[in-house]
Amino acid sequence: MIYLQISTAQGPAECQMFARFALQKILREAETAGVEAEILEETPSKHGILSAVLKLSGSRAESLAASWQGTLQWACPSPLRPQHPRKNWYIGVFRLPEIPALPESEGIEFQTCRAGGKGGQHVNKTESAVRAVHLASGIAVRVEGERSQHANKKRALELLALKLAEHHQTALRRHAADAHKLLYRVERGNPRRVFKGEGFREQA
User: Fold this and answer.
1) Phi-psi category of 70—alpha, beta or left, where left has phi over 0 and alpha has psi -120 to 50?
2) Residue 140 CB-density burial (10 A; 0-12 exposed, 13-18 middle, 19+ buried)
3) Can you list the alpha helix ranges (DSSP code H) found in the chain?
4) Into which family does the record put it (predicted)?
5) Residue 98: strand, helix, or coil
6) Over the stretch 147-196, which tens digit does the pLDDT of each residue have?
7) Residue 71 forms beta bridges with which residues?
8) Taking the CA atoms of the chain, what radius of gyration do you get in angstroms?
9) Neighbour tally for 120: CB within 10 Å
């Protein structure tokens, strides 16, 4: 699974026109290559789009994404502002980190041990404490507050579920922050692909 973000970096209307063209062309190339493409997010504007996020999947998704990643250049006098001196417009196509999935609930390892506390109490005479480890993520919890192993195991599962949810939310926030940074980063020069004129003819 590959996630691509098209960004104008809050560029002018001409960049927004170019971004809409790029999105449509990526979708056409994906269809030709047999790559499944889905628009996950699109921010429209009056003249095009400000940004979009695409999900690509299939055996040729990697090569398709690689052919677009980087800065794109459109060399054309502004069709909206004929007197504008600028003739080159830039947008960026970035690969986002994969959206993290919630770790599987299966694959939990349970370990029993003697509970801590004052000697002589029943809680210390049996291995009632439970340590639960989610093998996929390495997240672990230890519970010994209940008298029975069964009760501690149940509580451990509840705590582990909370820890996994927190882990998932943290990863999502990190992913969103990374994506937000890319929205404002478009480098000019050394474009990956160059298009010319109002017909967006690609330069060989």
Assistant:
1) left
2) middle
3) 13-33, 61-66, 122-125, 149-183
4) Belongs to the prokaryotic/mitochondrial release factor family.
5) coil
6) 788 888 887 887 787 677 767 767 766 776 776 676 666 666 679 899 99
7) 92
8) 26
9) 8
Which two three-digit tokens encode residue 123? 């809680």
User: Domains (ranges, CATH) in the chain?
Assistant: 2-100+187-203 (3.30.70.1660), 108-172 (3.30.160.20)
Task: Please report the sign of the dihedral spanned by the C-alpha atoms of residue 183, residue 3, residue 38, residue 173.
Answer: negative
Question: Tokens at residue 91, please?
Answer: 């947008």
Encoded tokens for 98 = 């994969």
Q: How far apart are CA 105 and CA 127, in angstroms?
A: 24
Q: How confident is the model at residue 107 (pLDDT cuts 50, 70, 90)?
A: confident
Question: Is residue 93 within a helix (H) or strand (E), and if so which, with residue range?
Answer: strand 88-96
Q: Binning pLDDT at 50, 70 and 90, where does residue 138 land?
A: confident
* Token pair 């927004």: residue: 16
